[in-house]
Specification:
By secondary structure, the protein is α/β, with parallel strands linked by helices. It has 2 domains: 9-25 and 66-207 and 294-328, Vaccinia Virus protein VP39 (Rossmann fold, 3-Layer(aba) Sandwich), CATH 3.40.50; 38-56 and 208-292, no CATH class. Helix content is 36%, strand content 26%. It has helices at residues 25-37, 51-60, 67-87, 102-111, 123-136, 178-192, 208-214, 221-237, 296-305, and strands at residues 2-3, 17-19, 41-42, 92-96, 115-120, 141-142, 144-146, 164-168, 197-203, 246-253, 258-265, 269-273, 276-280, 285-292, 308-315, 321-328. Strands 1, 2, 4, 5, 6, 7, 8, 9, 15 and 16 form a 10-stranded mixed β-sheet that branches. Strands 3-14-11-10 form a 4-stranded mixed β-sheet. It has a two-stranded antiparallel ribbon with strand order 12-13. Helix 3 (67-87) runs parallel beside helix 4 (102-111). The structure holds N,N-dimethyl-L-histidine (AVI).
């Protein structure tokens, strides 16, 4: 990891944010090319989050159909005292996939963290979000990190080892397949140290129509979020995807307990990029994201398998979403 040198002072100073330098452009291109040449084609969900993708995801969180953000916030509001008691004051709050940091910042008054460590793959977006938060909470030490934490949780020495609380809200754990989710939870467990814990949001299985609408909203914001991936691929690969040639498809699969998100070719076409090309027949898809849904019990079992215990759980009255606090064993 290197100090990020190229943020202007108005956005963040060099010491304000550390940037993971490991994922070089060749590795990214090789990973993307392998996915695009596979049958069916796929891309990892992290590529949905360029600067515009992060903004579109913020807009998704405001949609009437996208219940997870609102439901999770309501659970926090209704149970803040009990959650603060489970967490304790003065934690090192490590915010995985922090985005605009809003979810963690809402908890600052109740949790009074000693250090705040937001981590996000979209480093530029994170740096912009963090600058005003630093001014608002000058007593909380802050270390922003631009990092693809899905492949590494190696944190810089500036992150305190004491009382680490990994905060992973929004059911982002659902974007991993269950086996990967368990492996990722194990990595968090290892990074917790002796007295660490996890505070996590989980989207629960519910009626298909509600899930379908949440990922295929009437305004088409989720469609824009999915299609924007093509602009990002064009930049990363030097590809010539035409957004108008593709359709957003998202649906809940009860067999797999997951939302599947795809981009579907409207006509037969060939996409070219530096060093490769791929023919897509009309109707052929690129699988861009899964979002797994759990029962509370199945997620408690997953946490147990990953080395967590003393689990506390809070849900809304419809049982649509859960927040869990789990201690590293
Ligand atoms: C970030 N993640 C938890 C979102 C989800 O619900 O799986 C991403 C998303 N994709 C489409 N809508 C929202």
């Amino acid at each position: 990891m290197l100090p990020l040198q190229n943020f202007s002072a108005s956005r963040a100073t060099a010491a304000d944010l550390v940037l993971d330098d490991d994922a070089d452009a060749d590795t990214i291109r090789a990973e993307l090319q392998a996915g695009l040449l596979a049958t069916p084609a796929f891309t990892a969900p992290k590529y949905l989050y360029d600067a515009l993708g992060s903004k579109l995801f913020e807009a998704i969180c405001l949609l009437p159909e996208y219940y997870p953000t609102r439901t999770e916030a309501a659970i926090f509001d209704a149970n803040l005292a009990a959650i603060a008691q489970a967490v304790g004051l003065g934690a090192t709050l490590i915010d995985l996939g922090a985005g605009n940091c809003a979810k963690a910042v809402r908890l600052f008054p109740a949790l009074q963290p000693r250090q705040y460590v937001p981590i996000d793959i979209s480093a530029d977006f994170l740096a912009q979000a963090l600058a005003p938060i630093r001014s608002r909470f000058p007593k909380i030490e802050m270390t922003g990190i631009g990092l693809d934490f899905s492949s590494s949780l190696d944190l810089p020495d500036t992150v305190s080892q004491e009382k680490r609380l990994f905060f992973y809200p929004g059911s982002s754990i659902g974007n991993f397949a269950p086996a990967q989710a368990e492996a990722f939870l194990r990595r968090i467990r290892a990074a917790c140290g002796a007295d660490g814990a996890l505070l996590i949001g989980i989207d629960l299985i519910k009626e298909k129509a509600i899930l379908d609408a949440a990922y295929d909203d009437a305004l088409g914001v989720t469609a824009a979020f999915n299609l924007n991936l093509l602009h990002h691929l064009n930049r990363l690969l030097g590809a010539n995807f035409e957004v108008r040639d593709w359709l957003h498809r998202a649906f809940y699969s009860p067999q797999q307990s997951r939302i599947e998100m795809h981009l579907e070719a409207r006509r037969s076409l060939t996409v070219h990029w530096h060093g490769g090309q791929r023919y897509f027949a009309e109707g052929e898809r690129i699988h861009t994201e899964d979002s797994y849904k759990y029962t509370a019990q199945s997620f408690i079992e997953l946490l147990g398998a990953a080395g967590f215990g003393a689990i506390r759980k809070w849900t809304d009255e419809r049982g649509w979403f859960a927040i869990m606090h789990a201690q590293a064993l």
